[in-house]
Write a structure and sequence with these properties.
- The chain is mainly beta.
- The protein has one helix and four strands, in the order βαβββ.
- The chain has a four-stranded mixed beta sheet with strand order 1-2-3-4.
- The longest helix is centred in the N-terminal third of the chain and has 5 residues.
- The radius of gyration is 12 Å and the shape is globular.
- It starts with 5 loop residues before the first strand and ends in an 11-residue tail after the last strand.
Length: 73
């Protein structure tokens, strides 16, 4: 948080949803990339914070280790 907001964030473990604190720390126009688990697949997904909200774009199927802890599996 002392360095927030961030222009870029990269999550390197699969998660079912992006942890909300990371989305909150993203600056306007900032991008976040994460492998999201959906329907048993991991999809590398790009999020961009725009004036209208958060845009989401699926990039490709990937295979990462699962996120652990409070926001993990």
């Amino acid at each position: 948080p002392p360095q927030a907001p961030y222009d870029r964030i990269c999550i390197t473990a699969a998660c079912s949803a992006v942890p909300s604190p990371l989305l909150e720390e993203l600056s306007p126009g900032g991008r976040l990339i994460a492998p999201l688990t959906e329907y048993g697949l991991q999809i590398l997904t790009l999020f961009e914070k725009t004036p209208g909200g958060m845009e989401k774009k699926a990039i490709c199927e990937v295979l990462y280790i699962n996120l652990r802890g409070k926001y993990g599996v």
